């Protein structure tokens, strides 16, 4: 592959993730928690455009009501970290080497438990790889992604997938279905480390077993059965998220009362997810949830990061 000409751009779209099941084990010596999770990519997207430039810069916009005030615009931004990591990996980080101009257009709520920053990082890796004509093998991109954050490799893979290690070791799961979700977002995000710390506090003094993905969930996906999936979803972080945000209890109950097949907190929260039979059913459930926040309809699984 050859690098694109000066001033040229590549845009990559990457999806939000949800955890159909999030099994959390006892905290490791490095501070991370071993996970056994089933990820699904859903149809909320972030688009990263990488443009040839002499220096390094980043801009950000939100769409579909997404507020981006809390997105850092400096070198701590995960997309910028991804671009610099790939540049170093490719030997493009010598004095005088060109940089890249990144623009993020975020349709994934920030700090919502939907891995929006991870989607940006996955998209930035792929966009820069294409812009610079590197042709980095997927296995290497996945390894770089894992260094950026536990959820980033899944942003590259998409679909439905098992996640192990601290979540960065991903393998595709067979999935024959289409699942319609109501995604209830909140204005104030939650800190992932704070939710894991609350999880530790809740389990202090007790033995936490090694987590597993339920076989029934894997079977439900393989069969494409929305009802069997509804019976198998779960989130070990949910009690910790609810301790920090007790007000999330009411919409979870309201969604079930409005006939959602399942209701759960997305990852560390505060986004709540409601599994529905199909699109029309999701519209009906969303109407009942309107008093509790902003609702968006999404479906999964969708592909991981891809050039558009
Ligand atoms: C909870 C989950 C579930 O998918 O997602 P979100 O709800 O944040 O989207 C993930 O585990 C979040 O992954 P990610 O947001 O990439 O986390 P990282 O940047 O790797 O780590 C941020 C911090 O979260 C905690 N952390 C993360 C992953 C893990 N397996 N154990 C942890 O304890 C650690 O405190 C770590 O310092
Ligand atoms: N590109 C990015 N987009 C959003 N947040 C980012 C980004 N880079 C770094 N961050 C930081 O990561 C935090 C978590 O954001 P996000 O990935 O959207 O949520 P979550 O970890 O809940 O899935 C934000 O509060 C922000 O400080």
TrEMBL record:
GO molecular function: 4-(cytidine 5'-diphospho)-2-C-methyl-D-erythritol kinase activity; ATP binding
Matches recorded under Pfam families: GHMP_kinases_C, GHMP_kinases_N
GHMP kinase N-terminal domain boundaries: 77-159
Enzyme class, UniProt record, top EC level: transferase
Pathway field: Isoprenoid biosynthesis; isopentenyl diphosphate biosynthesis via DXP pathway; isopentenyl diphosphate from 1-deoxy-D-xylulose 5-phosphate: step 3/6
Xref: InterPro entries: GHMP_kinase_C_dom, GHMP_kinase_C_sf, GHMP_kinase_N_dom, IspE, Ribosomal_Su5_D2-typ_SF, Ribsml_uS5_D2-typ_fold_subgr
EC number: 2.7.1.148
Keyword terms of this UniProt record: ATP-binding, Isoprene biosynthesis, Kinase, Nucleotide-binding, Transferase
Active-site residues per Swiss-Prot or TrEMBL entry: 17, 151
GHMP kinase C-terminal domain residues: 218-289
Positions of ATP binding: 109-119
The keyword DNA damage belongs to this UniProt entry's keyword annotation: no
Catalytic activity: 4-CDP-2-C-methyl-D-erythritol + ATP = 4-CDP-2-C-methyl-D-erythritol 2-phosphate + ADP + H(+)
Biological process (GO), any one: isopentenyl diphosphate biosynthetic process, methylerythritol 4-phosphate pathway
Matching NCBIfam families: ispE (TIGR00154), PRK03188.1 (NF002870)
Family: Belongs to the GHMP kinase family. IspE subfamily.
Matching PANTHER family: 4-DIPHOSPHOCYTIDYL-2-C-METHYL-D-ERYTHRITOL KINASE, CHLOROPLASTIC (PTHR43527)
Function as written in the Swiss-Prot or TrEMBL entry: Catalyzes the phosphorylation of the position 2 hydroxy group of 4-diphosphocytidyl-2C-methyl-D-erythritol.
Protein's UniProt name: 4-diphosphocytidyl-2-C-methyl-D-erythritol kinase
Species for this entry: Nocardioides donggukensis
Gene transcribed to yield this protein: ispE
């Amino acid at each position: 592959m050859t690098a694109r000409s000066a001033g040229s751009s590549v845009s990559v779209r990457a999806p939000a993730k949800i955890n159909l099941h999030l099994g959390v084990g006892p905290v490791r010596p490095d501070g991370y928690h071993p996970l056994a999770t089933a990820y699904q990519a859903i149809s909320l997207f972030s688009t990263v455009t990488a443009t040839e430039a002499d220096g390094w810069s980043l801009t950000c916009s939100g769409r579909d009501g997404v507020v981006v005030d809390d997105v850092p615009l400096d070198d701590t931004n995960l997309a910028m970290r991804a671009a610099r990591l790939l540049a170093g990996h490719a030997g493009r980080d010598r004095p005088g080497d060109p940089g890249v101009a990144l623009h993020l257009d975020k349709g994934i709520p920030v700090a919502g438990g939907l891995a929006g920053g991870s989607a940006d990082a996955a998209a930035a890796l792929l966009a820069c790889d294409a812009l610079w004509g590197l042709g980095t093998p997927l296995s290497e991109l996945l390894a770089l992604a894992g260094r950026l954050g536990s959820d980033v490799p899944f942003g590259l893979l998409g679909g439905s997938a098992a996640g192990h290690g601290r979540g960065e070791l991903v393998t595709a799961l067979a999935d024959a279905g289409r699942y319609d979700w109501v995604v209830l977002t909140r204005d104030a995000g939650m800190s992932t480390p704070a939710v894991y710390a609350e999880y530790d506090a809740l389990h202090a003094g007790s033995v936490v077993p090694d987590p597993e993905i339920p076989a029934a969930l894997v079977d439900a996906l393989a069969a494409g059965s929305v009802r069997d999936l509804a019976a198998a979803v779960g989130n070990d972080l949910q009690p910790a998220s609810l301790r920090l945000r007790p007000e999330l209890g009411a919409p979870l109950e309201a969604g079930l009362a409005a006939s959602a097949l399942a209701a759960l907190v997305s990852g560390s929260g505060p986004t709540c997810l409601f599994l529905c039979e199909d699109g029309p059913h999701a519209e009906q459930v969303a109407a009942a949830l309107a008093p509790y926040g902003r609702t968006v309809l999404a479906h999964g699984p969708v592909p991981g990061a891809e050039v558009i």
